[in-house]
Amino acid sequence: MKFSLKKTVAVVGAAAMLVSVAACGGSSSQGAAGDANGDVTLNLWAWEPTLKPVIKAFEKKYPNITIKFNNTGKADTTVTSLNNAIQAGSGIPDVVQLEYMTVPQFVIGEQSQLANIKDKTSGYDTFYTPGTWNSVSLNDGVYALPMDSGPQAMFYNKATFDKAGITEAPKTWDEYYQDAKKIRALGDDYYITADAGDIKVMTAFLWQAGAKPYESKGENVTINFTSDPQVKTVADFWQKMIDEDLINTKVATWADEWNRGIGDGTIATIFEGAWMPANLVSNSAAAKGNMRVALQPNWDASKPSNGENGGSALAVTSASKNQDAAFKFIDFANHSKEGIKIRTDGGAFPADKATLKDADFLKGSDEVRAYFGDQAYNEVLAEAANQVTESFQFLPYAGQANSIYGDYVGKAYTDKSTTLEKGLAAFQKALAKYGSDQGFTVKQG
């Protein structure tokens, strides 16, 4: 049985409003928007561990509000669970953490499943970095507050660069290509990077290049991987890298072999979000002292730009009976100096402009600085955040795009019978069909 987002969202929304107070974690003393004058219990779904000390500080400041933290494990699980709760019309949380790319799928439709908080956020647009604020601002509304960000950067092994005679990090993609050949010459196991088809990394590449593969306005969606010149620029570059055996296409991101390759330097660079440093310290400890971070190479070094890889926001659900109290929490966690500092002290990368200029934050932790050879790693990552453009849009059904990307585009990394260009064209066709089946009006570029 097909589930139509467009046709059933109103029904789901109506059902969600009938959710019992207990299921929503609400209090019977609260009105539909939740005036938060009495005792309130909020149900929070999230996976970010830095929220635990935030909750403790928030409950101390607001003793009448209790937060029940349901750790959903990871972003994809959260989306699946929230979709299931919406369809069932019960168990919907008051507050939910969502990756930026998945926010639109809960907003687009006849009725948004996330509360529009625009009237509570006047002036907030200048508080956050442009890319993160743009990601929560949809259809002339605001549907979440940015929690963290993931400007993409290049993490590289300096020891491997030194061994290959590379004296500085590449500033352009052409320099990166030339460096790839030098590293490949070190031996059969050496590659400048490993990629078996990672949609989040590719999305950041497209974002940086100024591509617009997705554009949406309400239920009208345009998907364009076939005639956008910036998409072609990115695809052609990485196809050349694949064809010339300059990247390791046999090792998938996050696999044990990937972590080992980063650690021993046979994978010389990786492209990930600014949240990556702590993961490197934990998973690729052998690279301690050798790892560095640099800005992602640009197509035009005189006009630097960047894209986001990951990052998330906190949203109040439209089904919540305690929306005022729920907003107090997301505002404390993501907009107050106290809440933001708690999270950044725990290793989160901020979404607000002020923290990106804060001396303590830019200094970073002693442990991570040691891993990066005493480099001021957060200074580089803050610059990467400032280079993110605000023009990129996500697909209203990003979850579907994530789930089928490997079947089409990812296949081009490992199957010589196809190419990234062909894979992207097939990916576009599949996404257009899916969107039409869900009730969207889809145009292909």
TrEMBL record:
<protein>
    <submittedName>
        <fullName>ABC transporter substrate-binding protein</fullName>
    </submittedName>
</protein>
<dbReference type="InterPro" id="IPR006061">
    <property type="entry name" value="SBP_1_CS"/>
</dbReference>
<dbReference type="InterPro" id="IPR006059">
    <property type="entry name" value="SBP"/>
</dbReference>
<comment type="similarity">
    <text>Belongs to the bacterial solute-binding protein 1 family.</text>
</comment>
<dbReference type="Pfam" id="PF01547">
    <property type="entry name" value="SBP_bac_1"/>
</dbReference>
<keyword id="KW-0732">Signal</keyword>
<dbReference type="GO" id="GO:0055085">
    <property type="term" value="P:transmembrane transport"/>
</dbReference>
<dbReference type="InterPro" id="IPR050490">
    <property type="entry name" value="Bact_solute-bd_prot1"/>
</dbReference>
<keyword id="KW-0813">Transport</keyword>
<feature type="signal peptide">
    <location>
        <begin position="1"/>
        <end position="22"/>
    </location>
</feature>
